[in-house]
Amino acid sequence: MMKSIVFDKLPMHDTCWSITTGRDGNVYVGVCGELVDGLSVFIVRYNPLQDKVEYMLEVAPALNEAPDNGRAPIAKLHYGLLPGSDGKLYCATHYSGPPVGDFIWRAWHTWDDPERMARGFNIFCYDPVAEAVEDFGVMSPNEGSRAMALAEERGLVYGITWPRDHFYIYDLQKRRYRDLGRIGDTNAQSVWVDEAGNGYTVDDLGYIVKYDADADRLMQLDARVPKDPAALSEERSVYDVTPAPDGKSVYGVTWNMERVPSVSRFFRYCFNDDRIDDLGPAPGTDHSNHVGGLIFGDDGYLYYAASRRDDDRRLSYRMYLFRMNTATLVQEELCPFDDGDYHSEYIAKATKDYAGNLYFADTNNRPERIYVYTPQGSGKSFTPRWPLVRTWG
Amino acid sequence: MAVGQDVGVRKMPLNERDLEQRIWPQAHFPIGQEVVGKGPGNNSYCDDNGFILQAQAGFSCAEKLYPRDYLESCYVQTGSIEAVPLPIPAEECAISSLVQSDLLYGTTAGRRSHLFVYADGRIKDLGVIEENCRKSSLAVADKLYIGTEPMDGEGSLYTYQDNHLVKLMCPAAGEGIAALVADGDRLYGLTSKSGIFFIYYPADGKLELKEQIEPPFSPVLALSSAGDVYGGSRWNNLFRYARADEKIRKLDVQVPTLKGREMYNRIETLICHGDYLYGGTSADGWLFRFSLGKERMFSLGKPLNQPHIRCLAVAADGALYGVAGKDCCHLFRYAEGDLRDLGIIRVTSPRLWHGYRFAAAIAGRQGEIYLGEADRISHLFIIKK
């Protein structure tokens, strides 16, 4: 049975989209409240050595925005909790939770509503050592940040806005925000970087979009993530992307954007020649499937969460842990995401700790939790090393 | 709080007892382990996607009323909408102007400006006009004419003949062309910085600089069926160039704005249809109609609680259609005294696409309205009733 860590002091929070491991070896999670009105996201810390949960920061008040002020609250960190080698976490806020008193909220319906519209996402730095927050300010009025990546050696943050799907750059030294314009309609769920600090994401037709940092140019590449052969639509994007151990490529999984009937497919993207390798379909034949939580274990396997259909549940999913031998592409089912109390309905992203334990962020449950899996041979010695995990959400 | 300000050291971790004692908002519907099934049941609730969920025993929540069509309610829901992609790269395809001639033609702005034609359901790129173009204006007389407004430097007049773009001349040193209309044997234009009203005669290539429109002027011109040209001079007062005596006169008519906001507004779009000028303002997004015969201004109100009237077109049935808004534009319709917001323009096939920014509109011959999207990636939208 899989172990879970339950955030029971936040009984009404319902999603965990962001999870990462800080330089201090602790696991950090953005515990969000998007289905209940007037909630702020919290940053919660799990110390694996002490097996201890600490509720570190209520984000909205720290950014001088009361969650119950009538605007769409700062309810989420959505793939926007990035670990720096300086020990700090670089964060972007996101929206979709309803304003206090309301049942539902969407940006399109309230775009110029001075009372209900979102203030616009903040980028901020959370320093868990100094226990301080540095707010870099509101970036794009009305919008949230759906996904973000840190190009640390360049001092840049790359991200995409929601709902307009603009690619942005924030220069941490110059404190300068730049909107490079629209790249599609539905956001990809991942922005990533290479060793040179170039930024990447995927548009909603599956093409890799690259920000060439030296040329200062955003461009659509010919490289395209694979498509389910049975899918009629040309639309697809990516859900999760994780660095390969070689540092020269990333592994990812496509995303059906919750509307295009297609089975998710794995791919490998090689930075040097902009090559995409189609690694085949995710487990199962469900055309509305979900795959997330991609992470390489210390044993070299690619671990991930994949769904099976259960129509009696709100999201119609039950999640199972799999792993792939990336040399042979053989996939193997390991266990359900079930802690004995609850079988997860949706896994978003994953991280690991210095001992090689894997952590998976659950969404759509109350109280929220993360699941912990220890691959064979891991979990014995807590050995600090850096970089440990990716610098993107 | 100033950007980059250190919000400061906070008490961390938070006191768990405080969290335990906090009064949290109530749930609106069951999720996760609170759900035991879907569909109607003894303890059922509707979630934010409209699904009926059966909750486990003992679950209760603060169910709130909301319109069940909420998610779709913000979009245009009448008629059909098509979005035709442009075979022009991103950053070069923002549609800046549209004209209806034998076919539908358009120009783009951006890193490079293109001329394109729409025919048989497809768009064909007819060539690059200029680089680094802020705006391009199309006018049709015996041929197509294009005026450009570059990001920096001089704009030029072009024509399209024998399948080639031909540069004709630069009307004014160091500035571009803000607006261009054509009337038979002549083109009327307005320079972008100094606001010089000019006439260009294509037959002999003669340029006549008439006079400077009193600044701050509006970057628009509209041609009436009588051959007069209208525009906006200082603080949005209309002016008329009368073809009969070839003189420009400032009319004693001001375009409506919110009180005290004359200086913030320009006429952003201006068209002439029949006996009326229709136009809209920038900062206030105010719609107006001016009777040419009676020289009377009518305020038609604000279609949205956003700034900007981006573009207007009168459909075959006489209804006025337009696009208003800043970065999340809406389509609106005015007819018979009734001004209605029709919603956000979106298509779901073959690719989901929201139209957020627009800069051009023109009525088609079959009652359809063409809208030119003006974004980093843009489409020609076709609205059919």
Count of individual helical segments of chain A: 1
Question: On the 0-100 scale, what is the average pLDDT of chain B?
Answer: 95
What is CATH's topology name of chain A?
Methylamine Dehydrogenase, Chain H
Class based on secondary structure composition and strand pairing of chain A: mainly beta
CATH fold name of the domain at 80-212 and 303-384 in chain B, please? Neuraminidase
Mean pLDDT of chain A: 97
List the helices and strands of chain A in order.
EEEEEHEEEEEEEEEEEEEEEEEEEEEEE
Describe the structure in your own words.
The complex is a heterodimer of chains A (393) and B (385). Chain A is an all-beta fold and 393 residues long. Chain A has one domain: 7 Propeller (Methylamine Dehydrogenase, Chain H). Chain A contains one helix and 28 strands. In chain A, the strands form seven sheets. Chain A has a four-stranded antiparallel sheet, with no helix packed on it. Chain A has a four-stranded antiparallel sheet with strand order 2-3-4-5. Chain A has a four-stranded antiparallel sheet with strand order 6-7-8-9, with no helix packed on it. In chain A, strand 14 and strand 15 form a beta hairpin. The model of chain A has no long low-confidence stretch (mean pLDDT 97). The chains are: A mainly beta (393), B mainly beta (385). Strand 9 of chain A pairs antiparallel with strand 1 (6-9) of chain B.
Task: Walk me through the topology.
The complex is a heterodimer of chains A (393) and B (385).
Chain A: E1 3-6, E2 15-21, E3 27-32, E4 42-47, E5 52-58, H1 59-62, E6 81-83, E7 89-92, E8 122-127, E9 132-138, E10 144-151, E11 156-162, E12 166-171, E13 176-182, E14 192-193, E15 199-202, E16 207-212, E17 217-224, E18 237-243, E19 249-255, E20 265-270, E21 275-281, E22 291-296, E23 302-309, E24 317-325, E25 330-336, E26 347-352, E27 358-362, E28 369-373
Antiparallel strand pairs in A: 1-28, 2-3, 3-4, 4-5, 6-7, 7-8, 8-9, 10-11, 11-12, 12-13, 14-15, 15-16, 16-17, 18-19, 19-20, 20-21, 22-23, 23-24, 24-25, 26-27, 27-28
Chain B: E1 6-9, H1 16-21, E2 35-38, E3 44-46, E4 52-55, E5 80-85, E6 94-100, E7 104-119, E8 122-140, E9 144-150, E10 157-161, E11 164-169, E12 177-183, E13 186-191, E14 196-201, E15 206-212, E16 221-223, E17 229-232, E18 237-242, E19 247-254, E20 267-273, E21 276-281, E22 287-291, E23 296-301, E24 309-314, E25 320-324, E26 330-335, E27 338-347, E28 353-355, E29 358-363, E30 369-373, E31 379-384
Antiparallel strand pairs in B: 2-4, 3-4, 5-31, 6-7, 7-8, 8-9, 9-10, 10-11, 12-13, 13-14, 14-15, 16-17, 17-18, 18-19, 20-21, 21-22, 22-23, 24-25, 25-26, 26-27, 27-28, 29-30, 30-31
